[in-house]
Amino acid sequence: MTSIKLIGFDLDDCLFDSTGLSEAARIKGIDAMINLGLNIDRDMAITLIHEIVNEYGSNSSQHYNYFIRRLNELKILPISLNKQFMYIAAAVMAYHKEKIDSIALYNDVEPCLKKLKKIGIKSVIISDGIPIKQYEKILRLKINKLVDAIVISDEIGIRKPNPKLFSYYLKKFGVIGVETIYVGDNIYKDIFPANQNNIHSVFIHRGGKYDIKNIEPNISADLKPDYEIKNLNEIFPIIEKINSNISNKKC
């Protein structure tokens, strides 16, 4: 039997390009407002929406409301009340259409998950977020049948980086940390709780909003990943290395 029995994965910016998709969708919203008649320079509008996202966070549902409000209140571009709502509606429609039409797994995800099944290693998605939103992504990506379990933090009331979320899924699968690998793109929310549970931690570089291109060699031990990869195919040599080390110790 192999020593690695379970591999956990983050969802956003690990299994699909969440950052890139959100950025493209926001710009589609800007274009929809301009196409409807909003008289603003496109580059200026994109700069402004980026400013708002940075201020209010990427998860806010009010980006376009703040965008229109800011144009109006700062007298950058006075807009009548009924047109304000029309522009926001057009932007929201375009935003969601892009998110639905363009969501897709990274190319390495499906082959990786299928290979894990073939070699008898279970897989689980462990993601923060509102369950309905996260399950919508999972169903649109058609990934629900490719993994053995899904754990959404808000379902159990524990969010990353609380290590208890990871100990929860270890108990759920009846495994211990050293029998498990976790792959994520966030040093604080993925690597830290994995390390706290003695899980083999893997930082994947996808270029998302939490990516750290060069992880400092002197970073504190609780934040330092055991491995760094750019493609999920690199998981399999890691599995072999861990299993080989265990076998050698037994010998």
Mind explaining what this structure looks like?
- The protein has 251 residues and is of the alpha/beta class.
- The protein has 2 domains: 6-17 and 105-250, Rossmann fold; 19-102, DNA polymerase, domain 1 (Orthogonal Bundle).
- Helices cover 51% and strands 11% of the residues.
- The protein has 10 helices and 6 strands.
- The chain has helices at 18-35, 42-56, 63-73, 81-102, 109-118, 131-140, 153-156, 163-173, 187-196, 235-250, and strands spanning 6-9, 122-127, 149-152, 180-184, 200-204, 227-229.
- A 6-stranded parallel sheet has the order 3-2-1-4-5-6, with helices on both faces.
- α9 links the parallel β4 and β5 (200-204).
- α1 runs antiparallel to α4.
- The longest helix has 22 residues, at 81-102.
- The radius of gyration is 21 Å and the shape is elongated.
Which word captures the global form? elongated
Tally of extended strands? Answer: 6
Number of helices: 10
What is the helix fraction of residues, given as a range? 40-55%
Main traits of this protein?
10 helices, six-stranded parallel beta sheet, alpha/beta, 2 domains, 251 residues, DNA polymerase, domain 1
SSE map:
Blueprint: E1 6-9, H1 18-35, H2 42-56, H3 63-73, H4 81-102, H5 109-118, E2 122-127, H6 131-140, E3 149-152, H7 153-156, H8 163-173, E4 180-184, H9 187-196, E5 200-204, E6 227-229, H10 235-250
Helix pairs in contact: 1-2, 1-4, 2-3, 3-4, 8-9
In short:
With 251 residues, the chain is of the alpha/beta class.
